[in-house]
Design brief:
The chain is an alpha+beta fold. The chain is built from four helices and four strands.
């Protein structure tokens, strides 16, 4: 990292959401029409996320267009992070997951993606990754 042998690295596990969506769209058209940006912008709008860096496309596969996305919680400072912060983070992720479930079940997610020019949504699923609302102390 810094070259300093006394440098300490702190790793913190976070809860996030993995969303996988499949669109009936040619992958060449998807990239030509800036589909990644459209998808991220639409996800942020649907979930009221202001910081687009929280939505990360981690894979795009052909067949139709399959997008695998990670949605991160709002960032908290690691310097003064507490157990309560970790529980609040999990609550934030659980709320986003519930919102996504509602958008998917009502058809709003499908309509919104179609209106963004991403083709017909043929399949979508999402789940919370790292479900761990209870922090464990680190010595």
């Amino acid at each position: 990292m810094t070259g300093d042998p006394n440098c300490k690295v702190r790793v913190s596990l976070t809860n996030s959401i993995q969303l996988t969506a499949r669109f009936a769209m040619n992958i060449d058209d998807f990239f030509r029409d800036d589909g990644v940006t459209k998808f991220i912008n639409r996800m942020c709008a649907l979930l009221s996320i202001n910081d687009t860096s929280r939505v990360k496309v981690v894979g795009i596969y052909t067949g139709s267009v399959q997008i695998v996305t990670i949605i991160d919680p709002e960032m908290i400072s690691l310097i003064n992070s507490t157990g309560a912060d970790k529980i609040a983070e999990y609550s934030n992720v659980a709320t986003m997951q519930n919102t996504l479930d509602g958008l998917i079940q009502t058809g709003t997610f499908k309509t919104s993606m179609s209106e963004a020019g991403l083709g017909e949504l043929t399949d979508v699923s999402s789940k919370i990754l790292g479900e761990n609302p209870t922090p464990t102390p680190v010595d």
